[in-house]
Amino acid sequence: MEDSPDETTALIRNKPARFRHGKLFLAVFSAVLGNFNFGFALVFPSPVIPQLQKGDDPRLQMDIHQISWFGSIFTLGAALGGVSAMVLNDRVGRKITIMLSGVPSTVGLLVMGAAQNFWMLLWGRFLTGIAGGITAGSIPVYVSEISHPSVRGALGSCPQITAVFGSLALYAFGLVLPWRWLAVAGEIPVVIMMIFLCFMPTSPRYHIMKGNRARAVKSLEWLRGPNSDYLTEFNKIERSISSQGVQWCDLKTPLYYKPILISVVMRFLQQMTGITPILVYLEPIFHMTAISLEPKYDAALVGAVRLISVAIAASLMDKAGRKALLFTSGFLMYLAMLSMTMYTHKTPCNHGNLTVTEGLKSTYGGLAGPAFDPVTLIPLISSMVIIFGYAMGWGPITWLLMSEILPLGARGVASGLCVGVSWITAFVLTQLFMHVVDAYGLFAPFLFFCVVSVVNIIFTAKCVPETKGRTLEEIENFFRTGRTFTILDS
User: Which residues form the Major facilitator superfamily (MFS) profile domain (predicted)?
Assistant: First the structure.
């Protein structure tokens, strides 16, 4: 009778809550397919420009000014998309906003695939840019709001990982597919995304903001599992939202202006590292540095390094912390930018339009490449380290921190503002990059990006908070009180 209960035996044993993340992972995967297409469309000019320059259709061949517009107009569309996300996030919800991004993406890719002149290429790039801006302003917010704190760091890096994977897919397909079929291939992830999202839940936080408590509970139960402690999480979210009523005068309080300023400056500095023009003009850059290996293979190698580094960052996000990875990222980019500056300054590139236009034709039209010179591997290795450093920190963590620290009451509007600032900056840099190279040489922009990397390190040390292992409500409490992250159950 040793197993018989007595008066000291607990009648009800409290079992630890069991979280099932399978459905959460499915919801995140469905959403971040939009980032895959974003990464695919962003670097579209890299393999396409050389193919157009060696093509037989003079209507599609471009001079340096047209190349600058073809590369940069995507970012102008992304800025418009960011503003659209600012409105749509709070009007129709994060999930519907992501689904709406599929419309300009699909149309833009079709227009580019059927392009008969330069203007059709521009319109297609602009429309895919709008889609990219919408996804950049809505997907990180959606992923952050549906994620459990224990996995939010890893899942928060998924938008960046899938964007990187999309870029790598573009580089890989560019090795074997004509440029028109590249545009057709980009349609596939968009269609899959829109189908999958039809069956995914809306963000619980968005439901609570709209007063739909029952739907919010149902979404949380679906995401966490019926045996999880989802009701406690629901109560925390509801308390946090009920304490917020955003008015213009509230922007003067630290709860709002500090995280908004940090997010805006981080997105600005993220683009000032030069990552967008480097990725967009990757193959032309390799042509200008006269690397012995064929530039299209160099671009694919850099894309693979970028994917590996983002995967490493995702695994370390909730272990090493956000700030440690940002410091590492900034230091690696500084060293690589400095190496690239010294190499391109010591070894001048060809100047003028020959570098970008006639130079591409001659390179692709020739039967044999230059003799192998180990020294020419320096720009390839430097580019790999630049991409590796960026993807370790300033790529994924900037997106993650934006979605973590922005106050919930202003998250939709503020995230759209951040995306708008980011892509306007990217447009200016991408538009000017080729002109600066043509006027001063390739070392000039890389010297500028080297200085920006130092600024990024200083900004990380002085202004960026550590959010590892904290709930969104605890992070808001920190900005509200200025004290250590604490939030008590009641």
Answer: 27-468
